[in-house]
């Protein structure tokens, strides 16, 4: 177990904002987590788990302990028929894990290629992209229970997955995810109908795509469309797309006939980016905190913005959408 004091987190969050952790500990396996539990001084501190830092905004220094899960593990278990179970340690980089499964000839995770972050964080907000969500492929999540000092397995149905949501954001928010298992298949059933996947494959003259072709197509589309955190600090979509009632959606349709709406998650989903753009925020900046010029849903750090400045801008955006449309935007990013 590696303990560090006053760890600078600037390189550990994709917004690239300055923040310091009073103490940080890197854990490489469940045994080290148990050792950590025996250290009363460390355990008395407020605890924050940090994976790749691609879904957090630090608005201040962290006064306690930051746990960095560095559990590297990749396992394959044969399943029945074409089904195969693969298991990833929490510290595995997500995209590398996806490509490892593709290299084994397994289908299932291809649409989720190139999402930044780690395997351990993926269930927290039920990551999703291009028509697939983690819950569609997830078998179980293993967590460490700090109170009982033991590991617990949560099967898919117990994870209460929703749109960018799970039990690990709510009742079990303190748990450390140690491993995640997926049910994949040797027989691909590809999801090609979302966004520009079919067009991208056609442009590459691929008519009978393999899962790896889909991952490559998705990665190419993402590289074209999304700002790269290595170039400009960001955490992807800052807000979740709001889901409103059918009655509120009908009222908004009437007031704003061009507003896109999608039936989803037991209501009507509105694209937050459209709402933000309609309020005139696209491309605006306050100092080094800004709204991306092509993606109104992505807040960016143009250089030296503090997390506090980005959060102030986020609140201005949220207030303006609320005043214009009567719709409340909730951050998708964890604001610390
Ligand atoms: C350019 C860009 C594009 C993105 N595109 C998408 C997208 O298409 N779809 C999507 O869903 N998301 C997307 N995201 C968001 C982000 O990639 C995901 O939320 C990802 O799962 C975060 O992983 P992370 O390891 O960086 O987590 P972090 O940012 O480090 O942490 C996020 C949350 O998870 C908790 N956490 C992290 N690891 C663990 C663990 N082992 N145990 C318990 N809790 C943990 C943290 O405490 C925090 O609350 C994007 C982000 C960026 C920067």
Question: In words, what does this structure look like?
Answer:
The chain has helices spanning 30-38, 40-43, 94-103, 197-203, 211-225, 246-255, 272-278, 307-325; strands at residues 2-8, 20-27, 47-49, 56-57, 62-69, 74-78, 83-89, 128-129, 132-133, 138-145, 150-155, 176-185, 233-237, 243-244, 262-264, 267-269, 285-286, 289-291, 298-301, 334-335. The protein has 336 residues and is an alpha+beta fold. It folds into three domains: 2-69, Uridine Diphospho-n-acetylenolpyruvylglucosamine Reductase, domain 2 (2-Layer Sandwich), CATH 3.30.43.10; 74-225, Uridine Diphospho-n-acetylenolpyruvylglucosamine Reductase, domain 3; 233-335, Alpha-Beta Complex (Uridine Diphospho-n-acetylenolpyruvylglucosamine Reductase, domain 1). Strands 6-7-12-10-11 form a five-stranded antiparallel beta sheet. Strands 1-2-5-3 form a four-stranded mixed beta sheet. A four-stranded antiparallel beta sheet has the order 13-19-18-17, covered by helices on one side. A hairpin with a 4-residue loop joins strand 10 and strand 11. It is globular, with a radius of gyration of 21 Å. The model has no long low-confidence stretch (mean pLDDT 95). The structure holds flavin-adenine dinucleotide. Flavin-adenine dinucleotide binds next to strand 3, strand 8, strand 12 and strand 13.
């Amino acid at each position: 177990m590696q303990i560090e004091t006053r760890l600078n987190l600037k390189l550990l969050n994709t917004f690239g904002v300055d923040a310091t952790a009073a103490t940080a500990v890197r854990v490489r396996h469940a045994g080290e987590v148990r050792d950590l539990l025996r250290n009363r001084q460390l355990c008395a501190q407020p605890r924050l788990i940090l994976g790749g830092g691609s879904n957090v905004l630090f608005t201040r220094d962290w006064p306690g302990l930051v746990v960095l899960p560095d559990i590297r593990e990749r396992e394959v278990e044969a399943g029945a028929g074409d089904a195969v179970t693969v298991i990833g340690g929490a510290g595995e980089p997500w995209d590398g894990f996806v490509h490892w499964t593709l290299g084994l000839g397994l289908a299932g995770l291809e649409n989720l290629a190139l999402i930044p972050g780690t395997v351990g964080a993926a269930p927290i907000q039920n990551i999703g992209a291009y028509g697939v969500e983690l819950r569609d492929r997830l078998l179980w999540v293993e967590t460490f229970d700090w109170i009982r000092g033991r590991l617990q397995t949560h099967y898919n149905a117990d994870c209460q997955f929703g749109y960018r949501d799970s039990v690990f954001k709510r009742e079990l928010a303190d748990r450390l995810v140690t491993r995640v298992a997926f049910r994949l298949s040797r027989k691909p059933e590809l999801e090609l109908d979302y966004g520009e996947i079919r067009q991208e494959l056609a442009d590459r003259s691929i008519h009978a795509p393999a899962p790896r072709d889909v991952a490559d197509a998705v990665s190419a589309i993402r590289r074209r469309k999304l700002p790269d955190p290595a170039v400009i600090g960001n955490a992807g979509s800052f807000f979740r797309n709001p889901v409103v009632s059918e009655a509120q959606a009908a009222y908004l349709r009437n007031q704003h006939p061009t507003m896109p709406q999608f039936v989803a998650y037991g209501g009507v989903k509105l694209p937050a980016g459209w709402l933000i753009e309609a309020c005139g925020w696209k491309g605006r900046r306050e100092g080094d905190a800004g709204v991306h010029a092509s993606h109104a849903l992505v807040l960016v750090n143009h250089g030296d913005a503090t997390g506090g400045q980005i959060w102030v801008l986020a609140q201005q955006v949220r207030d303006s959408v609320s005043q214009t449309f009567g719709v409340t935007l909730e951050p998708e990013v964890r604001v610390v």
